[in-house]
């Protein structure tokens, strides 16, 4: 079901039945809150993870995120409002649709369901309730070879802080003081053919600094089978959303203010979700754990498209010195070459 612009959408269904809805935020920049008048929503899946099945009256869905929920039509037959509202913006935008019982003869009435109070704290607390259902499709707490992510000691730790600097008088976005620019030679081609001068592996440091903001084609290096702790630090007033190509990761912690090593005691090391995209609240931090089992060059970027386009991204190089088809296939014979890779032979 898609609620788009100001178009009113209707969803007709039968009383007494339970329906599964898939809710996705495919927007460019804004979180929205989703709710259905008079009905509870039971969340059953979040980006491929089966979750503990809690009931919710409303749900915050951040940029690039999706979830599945069950709605049972157990109310008197009539029409009910479906509402989606922007979050964390001064100007609130609302779109209203209808849940219509198939035997309804009564139009929707009353005020549409309101937004929940306490935007930041409420949303962060809700995010912590999304947890793996360990009795379903997830690693189970048993001795039969399950993957216990919370018992693995990270081999490397990074703190990536987003910022919005002006560079030469123009708005840019950056990670640890480095704003990404695309090179004419794709970084994977440059890496495969060992072409020097295309990207920098020392531009982005592992923690933020007060150094002058720079522009670079930035690549962060790591080794195959590393287990990473990555903290996304957000010191801005807007919600950030981070995505990593080629991987999912455990979202183990959310917190307000500046992250410190002492915050590790707040991590969920037992039943955190695996996701592909995570939110970072205003003036807050989010921590993920990541198992590097997929060799290659992988893009880590803002899921907010304006920020991604203007530099809030970099590539994560997952590398092993031993060349093996078990780790990474050879490129195809018809590989297209451009930039400095033109004329290079496999």
Automatic annotation (TrEMBL):
Keyword Lyase carried by entry: no
InterPro entries from the UniProt entry: Cu-oxidase_2nd, Cu-oxidase_C, Cu-oxidase_fam, Cupredoxin
UniProt entry keywords in alphabetical sequence: Glycoprotein
Protein's UniProt keywords contain Glycoprotein: yes
Plastocyanin-like domain span: 2-104, 185-321
Family: Belongs to the multicopper oxidase family.
PANTHER family for the chain: BNAC02G16540D PROTEIN, MULTI-COPPER OXIDASE
Protein name: Plastocyanin-like domain-containing protein
High-level lineage: Eukaryota, Viridiplantae, Streptophyta, Embryophyta, Tracheophyta
């Amino acid at each position: 079901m898609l609620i788009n612009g100001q178009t009113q959408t209707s969803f007709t269904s039968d009383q007494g039945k339970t329906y599964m809805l898939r809710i996705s935020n495919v927007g460019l920049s804004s979180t929205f809150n989703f709710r259905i008048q008079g009905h509870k929503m039971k969340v059953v899946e979040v980006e491929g993870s089966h979750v503990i099945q809690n009931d919710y009256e409303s749900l915050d869905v951040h940029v690039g995120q999706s979830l599945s929920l069950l709605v049972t039509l157990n109310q008197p037959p009539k029409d009910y409002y479906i509402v989606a509202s922007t979050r964390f913006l001064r100007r609130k935008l609302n779109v209203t649709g209808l849940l219509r019982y198939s035997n309804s003869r009564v139009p929707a009435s009353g005020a549409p369901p309101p937004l929940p109070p306490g935007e930041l704290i409420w949303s962060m607390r809700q995010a912590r309730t999304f947890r793996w259902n360990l009795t379903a499709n997830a690693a189970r707490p048993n001795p039969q070879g399950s993957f216990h992510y919370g018992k693995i000691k990270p081999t490397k730790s990074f703190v990536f802080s987003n910022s919005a600097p002006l560079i030469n008088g123009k708005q840019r976005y950056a990670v640890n003081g480095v704003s990404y620019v695309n090179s004419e030679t794709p970084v994977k081609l440059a890496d495969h053919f060992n072409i020097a001068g295309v990207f920098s592996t020392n531009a982005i440091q592992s923690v933020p600094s007060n150094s002058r903001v720079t522009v670079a084609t930035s690549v962060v290096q790591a080794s195959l089978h590393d287990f990473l702790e990555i903290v996304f630090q957000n010191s801005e007033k807007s919600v950030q959303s981070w995505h990593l190509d080629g991987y999912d990761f455990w979202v183990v912690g959310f917190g307000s203010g500046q992250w410190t090593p002492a915050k590790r005691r707040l991590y969920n090391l037992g039943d955190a979700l695996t996701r592909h995209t995570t939110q970072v609240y205003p003036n807050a931090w989010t921590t993920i754990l990541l198992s590097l089992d997929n060799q290659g060059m992988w893009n880590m970027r803002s899921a907010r498209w304006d920020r991604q386009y203007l530099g809030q991204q970099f590539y994560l190089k997952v590398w092993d010195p031993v060349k093996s088809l078990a780790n990474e296939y050879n490129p195809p014979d018809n590989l297209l070459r451009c930039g400095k890779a033109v004329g290079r032979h496999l």
